[in-house]
């Protein structure tokens, strides 16, 4: 399995580097398409929810958890989680 791939994504007008394994990039792309959003808009939405959480995880971790919850139909995290 190949290691993480670093890509630059624009969030709120700023380029942000994110390192994810190729499988997560593919899943994120598919999720964005399913929601009718550009990839950067979906990442911005995930980032917005992430920073509202107490002790927020890094963005790559937040994306992985978001994809896991989406795939397994887990309820979205609340601000208290």
What does this structure look like?
This protein has 3 helices and 2 strands; from the N terminus they run E-E-H-H-H. The protein is of the alpha+beta class and 81 residues long. It has one domain (5-71): protein bp1543 (Ribbon-helix-helix fold). It has a two-stranded antiparallel ribbon. The longest helix is centred in the middle third of the chain and has 14 residues, at 39-52. The mean pLDDT is 87.
TL;DR of this structure?
This protein has 81 residues and is an alpha+beta fold. Helix content is 49%, strand content 17%. It has a single domain (5-71), classed as protein bp1543 (Ribbon-helix-helix fold, Orthogonal Bundle), CATH 1.10.3990.
SSE map:
Blueprint: E1 5-11, E2 14-20, H1 22-34, H2 39-52, H3 59-71
Antiparallel strand pairs: 1-2
Helix pairs in contact: 2-3
Count of alpha/pi helices: 3
Distance between the termini: 31 Å
Q: What is the rounded Rg?
A: 12 Å
Major sheet details: 2 strands, antiparallel
Shape type: globular
- What is the ordering of alpha helices and beta strands? EEHHH
Arithmetic mean pLDDT: 87
Regarding CATH, which class?
Answer: Mainly Alpha
CATH topology tier name: Ribbon-helix-helix fold
Please identify, by name, the CATH architecture: Orthogonal Bundle
- Strand order, largest beta sheet: 1-2
Which residues sit in consecutive blocks of at least 5 with pLDDT less than 50?
none
State the CATH superfamily name.
protein bp1543
List keywords for this structure.
alpha+beta, 2 strands, 81 residues, 3 helices
């Amino acid at each position: 399995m190949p290691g993480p791939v670093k890509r630059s994504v624009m969030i709120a007008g700023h380029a942000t580097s994110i390192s994810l394994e190729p499988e997560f990039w593919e899943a994120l792309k598919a999720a964005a398409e399913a929601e009718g959003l550009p990839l950067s808009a979906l990442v911005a939405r995930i980032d917005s929810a992430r920073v509202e959480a107490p002790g927020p995880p890094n963005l790559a971790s937040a994306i992985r958890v978001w994809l896991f919850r989406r795939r397994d139909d887990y309820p979205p995290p609340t601000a208290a989680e």
